[in-house]
Amino acid sequence: GAVVSQHPSRVICKSGTSVKIECRSLDFQATTMFWYRQFPKQSLMLMATSNEGSKATYEQGVEKDKFLINHASLTLSTLTVTSAHPEDSSFYICSAPPPTGPEAYEQYFGPGTRLTVT
Amino acid sequence: GEDVEQSLFLSVREGDSSVINCTYTDSSSTYLYWYKQEPGAGLQLLTYIFSNMDMKQDQRLTVLLNKKDKHLSLRIADTQTGDSAIYFCAESMDSSYKLIFGSGTRLLVRP
Q1: I need a labelling partner for A117 at 20 to 30 A (CA). Which of A10, B21, B61, B103 fits?
Q2: Chain B touched by A92 (CB under 8 Å)
Q3: pLDDT tens-place string over residues A66-80
Q4: pLDDT tens digits, A30-42
Q5: Rounded to 5 degrees, what are φ and ψ at B13?
């Protein structure tokens, strides 16, 4: 099946700095990708929809100026957490819908990036 | 609104069946999913059911969908210690592929 990768898998940064997380579709093109956030012992919450060639669509309550999303190509979306604070520490997971075909029900998830802000 | 609820914790003995329940509020859901997440890991799709189905069986897994009550369940037969994980139900409401996840059920399988 299709594979989605994320980089880095883990990152520790100091409060006030910015960190970039990459999400790549490895063997298919994805015009849309999704970014989710999962706090410890909690569920996944959709943050935003990343659209290739246009602006991302953010869910209610998510600060677009803090979580910058760039969908630069059909295989890469990046999430930049700007001026990170300890409360931004979380597990960030991206996903991409499948290409059309018999597996159209399945969405492909990346392995996640654990961000720790000290 | 969109709200998917699950019980937080389930403990079973190895070899027994596990039943994890989920309730959702949006009747326009197209697909409903069950994902498994092991500690520190990403999501693994276990199974899914299309909204016009009542039941789906896949090896040890049985999914039941009651659209009238907006209730989804996952039954794991012959539960093994390797099944210990957090299980999330999720609904996809339209062709956008956005998923709304449940709160997750932590399954503990005792030897």
Answers
A1: B103
A2: no
A3: 999 999 899 999 999
A4: 999 999 999 988 8
A5: -90, 145
